[in-house]
Amino acid sequence: MNIEQARFNMIEQQIRPWNVLDAGILDLLGSVRREDFVPAAYRGLAFMDTEIPLPCGQNMLFPKVEARILQELAVRKDEWVLEVGAGSGFMAALLGHRAAAVQTLELHEELVALARANLHRAGMSNVTVEHADGAHYAKHAEFDVIVLSGSVAQIPQDLLQRLKPGGRLAAIVGDEPVMHAQIVTRATETDFRTRDLFDTVAKRLEHFPEPSRFQF
Known about the structure:
Strand content: 25-35%
Oligomer: single chain
Order of helices and strands: HHEEHEHEHEEHEEE
Number of strands: 9
Radius of gyration: 16 Å
Shape: globular
CATH superfamily: Vaccinia Virus protein VP39
Number of domains: 1
CATH topology: Rossmann fold
């Protein structure tokens, strides 16, 4: 496989047609080696329009989904980012190139080790991988940007409260067969504004609340 041709095709045939037109984002996707964050058994799928299996039953998101969320968040170099669901570390690496610092949480020890190794190899010194459950994160901290790298039934209020005024949270919300990628912006202390981006489907983040399915 011609790696650079495959990377170029991913950007031009998958990502750009999804309205990812920010030159800085496109350049970043051309320089961060996605193939280094893909398990060896699936490296041939690194640039394909598909989710990629990870250990512990997890997945990497579609490349176009990662790229569009990154563009819509418009992360700045002075901002602090929290990611829930490190996976292989690829989204954290992209965020790290845009932000002052990234803290990414991962529930599964095997993925913590994988993400740390991948990020270290990529030279991402401003990204920290923490072994923690993002659904029950006890540390008191506020962030400019929060990214949920998986789906939830609804956006947890405690994560919204961790946003600084002007902060943004990205999540994939809802139930199969159709979920919605959303950006929630904290306009003021009490005013949160939601913007729908696109329809997609993503694997659930574990331990976040599910609505009752009982009907009376």
